[in-house]
User: Fold these one by one.
Assistant:
Number 1:
Amino acid sequence: MSPSDSFHLETSLQAFERSRWNALAGDQPFVRHEFLSALHETGCAAPDTGWTPYFLALRRGGALAGAVPLYLKTHSRGEYVFDYAWADAYARHGMRYYPKLLSAVPFTPVTGARLLAGSHDDRLALARGLIELAQQLKLSSLHLLFPRDEDLAALREAGYLVREGVQFHWRNAGYAGMDDFLAALNHDKRKKIKQDRKKVAQAGIRYRWLRGQDIDAAALDFFYDCYCRTYYEHGNPPYLNSGFFQRLHEQMPDTIVLIVAMQGDTPVAAALNLQGGGALYGRYWGSTSFVPGLHFETCYMQSIEYCIANKLSRLEGGAQGEHKIARGLLPTPTWSAHWIADPRFSEAIEDFLSRETAAMQDYLGELEMHAPFKPA
């Protein structure tokens, strides 16, 4: 850090000029000023829900040179990197795990910028500054979830423990059309996909792709009804309220791609994806009736077809799901970084992570054996 550099802890995104924040955040939608503000100001990620927002700012001569979106968390829900066993271990030893400090996009398991800066040196300064902050606040731990490669390099250098995970992503190999993609699959997978798509079509399902201002209030309301149904069917209330999606549509309309399944003139399912940085991110889905194959067609095959038609480089299908491999989404490593204050727990967790990483490498190797594509 230069003599003109200083750290500042802010409690609101309004302390940052939107254009400068977004210049550091890049073109992926999830850490942009508008997206995070929508989460906070609609009450989805707020102190009342266990997400108290903070922002570590690196200023150089008064100008913003780097930043980290942070949350003081009183639970581990909505993170998709599971540390419940760590919290239980703390409790068994009569120690407090919560609150903890977290850098992540709430309810969004998507890899992206966490150390918002333009150089490795500034990212390294932010990584070290976060440890100092956690120490000053006397917190048990600090976690950065789904960091991009540039951030991960700085976090490793700063001494964080690194954890490996897996998601399933589809890559566009320059396909001329959907038939070109299907032709790249082996016979069995291609045949199964064609059969599944035919069943959906025979049920009278057709699709509308809506983006930005083409999405009207009725379509957005229908999607939100579907989204809520999915959560309630699994016994949980939804994380996000209708105000969040309305705010997103008002302020970031071109990032939203809504895929609506129609049966005749009646909508029966919807998947809301976000687009940015040359990629499509599968996020939320739901339906009002059951049609065999409707979920896979709406969430995956239509999204892949959209990516091909719009020359997007990849589809990130969200957390979990070995079943996605058969649709052409391949296993892709993801990462998280962790700093643990207590050296005894840090040593134990480091040992656990070394064993977990070895098991994850074996698991990835097994998954790759089931790739659906023809041999190169």
Number 2:
Amino acid sequence: MTAIEIPALNFAALLPLFIVVGTGLLVVVLDLFIADKKSLGWLSLFGVILAAIVGNMQQGGAGFDPAFQNVSLLDGYANFFNIIFLSTAALSILVALGYLGRVGLHRGEYYALLLFATSGMMAMGMATDLMVVFIGLETMSIALYVMSALNRHSRPSGEAGIKYFLMGSFASAFLLYGMALTYGATGSTNFSDIGSVLTAGTVAPMAMLGLGLLLVGFAFKVAAVPFQWWTPDVYHGAPTAVTTFMSVGAKAAGFATLMRLLMVSFPAFAVDWQLAIAVLAVLTMTLGNVAALAQKDVKRMLAYSSIAHAGYILVGVAAATTEGIKSVLFYLLIYAFMNIGAFAVVGVLEQKEAIGTKLTEYAGLARKNPWLAMVMALFLFSLTGFPPLAGFWGKLYIFRAAVNADLTWLAVVAVINSGVAAFYYLSVIVQMYMKPAADDAPEILPSTPATRIALAVAGLAVVLIGILPASLVDMVAKGVFG
């Protein structure tokens, strides 16, 4: 009798993801019995930190082996993205512990949904098969749809959830159709097998069309022009704690999958997709920055700023080199701290709908709350790219990768856009430090210890990485696949 071969599963490689999912399930159960929802937030934070510790211990060990018949891989690349996802989740939980209670939205399901969304992001970062990509993408997206509409008594929040759901469904359809065409052209859904077939054989028009549809789907997820129209309304309408999380996590997850897919599966089409990504980068940077200039609401301004930063990251992707990948990893981790910090300050000042987010309501903040004004200025300067803060090194690394890939014209466009961005970032700083507060300005409620911890961690990261960027560069070098 022939022995039945049992497929290698390698559960250990997915242990960090299982910890996050298990914590989410535990939160769902305990939510039925625990009245103090803050304790569920702290439990979620513990689970995220535990997953990060386990993932760090696995580096260089069995975690580098393929898992579940080579459909998932916890290599250095996935490990680095897990650091980004788990850092984003941890900081977002700290922000939510202060924000949700103040606006009357402290519910246990928020933390469960955040953990499930994080697990979807981690699955996308580790995916080496199109089917796993789709499972991770939908796990993340469905959780974010619900989180966007968390405030059932707010019309903007409800609209944000509906818009995100409808537009996300269309994007998922494009993505799935692209996967189907790619499978039809190559006979496989595995990244490496797709790359081998396309490199060895004749370029199939069906595969080209599949790649085009895949780019459309991922462009939506990372908020690239012209698929960004949902972003300002969803980011502005969703509760600020939710916007804080998804503005970084969803974008990082999209880039994690996109870069691995392009570099492993479609190197044969590199000339074609490099040009397409470069054009997307120019459109995304330009529209995001120009639209942000016209905004009078800081939360909406940061939403358009998020679009512009997707354009900067696309510059690194367009380089199509190892250096380009490194620059994107470096930038995404820095971006997580900068953007979460900025949105966290918005959340502290926000009291209810349309109060605390207008640009004029930041007038005199430096006199009313010097600590908040200082950290907000720090994050805005870093987002602009002022040295010696972390944002400066992130942009420099991205632009240098483009120049070394003979895309100097793209780097020049990116530098010009960075100059445009300075106008709207500095307008907030001018309001905080040079304008007097209005007589009817809303009172600033004290921030909670959890929020202060989040702001302190994000601020220290922006400063320390800016002063000592070499240590992060060394980490990034370990996070690049072949």
